[in-house]
Amino acid sequence: MWWLLRRRRLRIPCSSLLPRRAFINARVKWVRDRGHDLAVSKEKHLRSFHALKNMLFSHRHNALPLSLIAEKRDELNLPFRALRFIRNHPSAFTETSNAVIRPTQQLRLIHNEELQAYSDCRQDSAQRLARLLMLTRRRRLPLTLIDRIAFDLGIPFDYVTTLLSYYPDYFDIVSGCNATGAGDLHLELVRWNEDLATSALERDAMSRFRVYRKGLPLEFPIQLPRGFDLEKRVREWMDSFQNLPYVSPYEDGTVLEWNNQVSEKWVVGVLHELLHLLVSKKTEKENLIRIGEHVGLPEGFKKAFSRYPGIFYISNKIRTQTVVLRECFKRDRLLVKNSVMAMRYRYISLMHKPAADQIAKNEVDEEEEEDNEIDRLKNEGF
């Protein structure tokens, strides 16, 4: 059955005809992009918020004692004490007199709509997860790694029961061995799906050109921030890089010689496709490094993030390094978002919304201030 999982054979020119230049010895400086930084920073604490929300709704009565949430602080990755985090989001969480935390009606509404969104895009989620496994050498990834990137991938936190169980012809959970020899669990692709083995760059080319044959040159979309200027020799190198044959990330690029540019273009293509598979079109740099180990990327591949600043942007916001796929954003705005991302923006709005009683108090204060101003003007003869 091994043939069901094999990658397609490469269809590229003979390696002896390919250029063998490595990336030129020129410094490509990092330039801050405020728009992309904002795209990262506005989701600050969203994962922690989502984790706490999921924990509440996973409980039978949708309520948990504050003491239990405090004990789970590390698991939830709360940025500070549980009580402070909860009180920072009064429109989402309520605290009873006996220190029990419950979701507000607003949070319940968005959560229910999110569940519907997950249900509506279940097929799309399964295909993106299958494509992720198709990029790896063994067609499998540890469940611990899937858990780590599930949020960025846009699959529900309980994906084992709410997603995998619907696609037994796609996925299987198998045992494996880690470095210590102890068994762990992996998510494995059941069989190769040729219909899914087309990258986002190839699909775009097929939609724009009537005729496209695999192995032809494909250019990566390049977006440089205003004021960013590459050295002349770097621009010339980038032009030659763009004109090289494009090897699909679903091909077995590990057979390429690592001292030529086509292999480097394959690496960039793999990273480009990985980010395209994520609904957020961005993720922590560490996540890509961990996935790269399973894909078979060469040592030092992470240098590609800084070598190609027109394709990738590295943000240093929220105390981590986040890799952003530039082409998918216009400043801080995600150009194409599915229903799952749309729901997350609603969560962000709720996180920054004051409680209903605070809104009412503000309205009363504004009315009193207006009445006082009118009285003052009358006293002054206006």
UniProtKB/TrEMBL annotation:
Residue ranges constituting the PORR domain according to the UniProt record: 31-353
UniProt keyword list: Hydrolase
InterPro entries assigned: PORR_domain (IPR021099), PORR_fam (IPR045040)
Ranges annotated as biased composition (Acidic residues): 364-373
Record bears the keyword Hydrolase: yes
Region (Disordered): 361-382
Entry annotated with the keyword Hydrolase: yes
Listed GO MF terms: hydrolase activity; RNA binding
PANTHER family named among the record's database cross-references: F14O23.23 PROTEIN, PROTEIN WHAT'S THIS FACTOR 1 HOMOLOG, CHLOROPLASTIC
Stated name of the protein: Ubiquitin carboxyl-terminal hydrolase family protein
